[in-house]
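Weekly modeling sync, notes
Attendees: S.R. (lead), two postdocs, one rotation student

Agenda item 3: backlog of single-chain predictions. S.R. asked that every request posted to the team notebook include the full sequence so nobody has to chase files. The rotation student volunteered to paste the first one in as an example of the format we agreed on. Action items at the bottom.

Example entry:
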Amino acid sequence: MTALAGKVAIVTGAGRGLGLAYARALAQAGAAVVVNDVDAAAAAAAARSITQAGGAAVAHVAPVGGTEAAEAMVKLAVAEFGRLDILVTNAGILRDTVLWKMTDDDFDEVIGVHLRGTFTCARAAAIRMREQGEGGRIICVGSPTGQVGNFGQTNYAAAKAGIVGMVRTWALELARAQITVNAVIPVAATGMTETAPFLKPYVDALRAGDPLPPYARRELSFGPPEDVAGLIVFLASAAAAGITGQAIGLGGDRLALWSHPAEAAVAFADGGWSGDAIAQAWPGQFAGHQQAVGQQFPEPY
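Predicted structure, as returned to the notebook:
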């Protein structure tokens, strides 16, 4: 159902972590893969690991963000493998700090890689896929932080929320071309998550080769990067042809479909609402519908 023989994919930020797991899984399903990374040694090693396992891969070294890098990736895919069918925009960086300490560079660098990089790569891929006239798959990587927020991640939250907003728009714009566009919301042990103090015991367990408890794999949706790769293969395949504009989470044993933002409560006032009228109505009609911010985890059991 999820065979990808004859398909060609680009995975950005694929030298290690989640991106490497995605690239390997796509290759194992039969796709030829362009492995992009800013680290030349990591990109070469990733591509080599795929070819040594019997797959087809080529390395591309460049930071994502600019149009030139995005177009070069697409050109390389076509030059090496003849076409482009799948794009996975995984590349990312962190510059975490609280709002009052975040510099312009902290903000701009994260937005440039995550948000602008997703835009330029998706645009270049969409142009090629539309020219081919055979549809395609664009899979953009979001984050729970973009869905619900996280302390110290203004830049990252803005970028990841923006990515999901672009996915919904592109799903509309590319539907006639039979190009699906979806967001993956992954949780896994990577360089970006292993510094979180509450995850340290589980990161240590994975490093030691120990199994994770059900709480980690189910409630925290936490596991190794390979746990997420099956969702990428599914969304890249013919089995997901009818799925577009969605945000889908996976990590550990937990697969989840995220809802779109929707009105949680509605009330009407003839002639409009004054500040006093809102203050009077809020406790009884709206307060109980307020939404939590940040990820909400049950206590370990």
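Discussion: group reviewed the output briefly. The chain has a mean pLDDT of 96.
Action items: rotation student to repeat for the remaining queue; S.R. to check formatting next week.
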